[in-house]
Amino acid sequence: MTTRTATAPGPRERLLEAAQRLTYSHGMGVGVDALLKEASVARRSLYEHFGGKDGLIAEVLRRSTAEDEAAYHQAMEAAGDDPRTRLLGVFDGIAVAIDRPDFRGCRYLAADLALTDPDHPGHAITRAYRMRVQQLLEHELLALGHPHPVAAAGQLLLLIDGALAAGVTRPATHPAASARQLAEHVLDARPAAA
């Protein structure tokens, strides 16, 4: 009988983990040398696996979006089956995230602001992520029977972005709770009279 031992992550995974941590805690401008040191890899590994820092940043964003989309689903599932409660549960989840000591805001907003090259591959990833979140919100709004699910999803996404930004700049104001109150108004919209 043989026993298997867990293998240590390879250079690619170590680079991804280090970049995911450092770009969130120190911003997208974190230096290549800091990334290599944190990951304990040679510079060659960065170029072999990602083609350079831009490729690494894009892959970190792609990986993070999958994790954050899962967090949206978990927050909604924890809230139950009612679409209204599920949508409000998103803001409850944001409140929990903002209260974490390592909270540094929205990774995607920070990336879009820091990546000044409009053709950086990270921008396409952040746009696609926001589109998927909006579609998730639209799905729940349709189940709720909202009269304007597309517009309302855009409004909710704006409230989410605002709560995440204010969570860094003004956390003591409880921005997720304020955003949740505004979201209730969006959810309670009634069809216009014919």
UniProtKB/TrEMBL annotation:
Protein name stated in the entry: TetR/AcrR family transcriptional regulator
Keyword set, alphabetical order: DNA-binding, Transcription, Transcription regulation
Presence of keyword Secreted: no
Organism domain of life: Bacteria
A Pfam family that the UniProt record links to this protein: TetR_N
DNA-binding region: 31-50
Signal peptide: none
Residues covered by the HTH tetR-type domain: 9-68
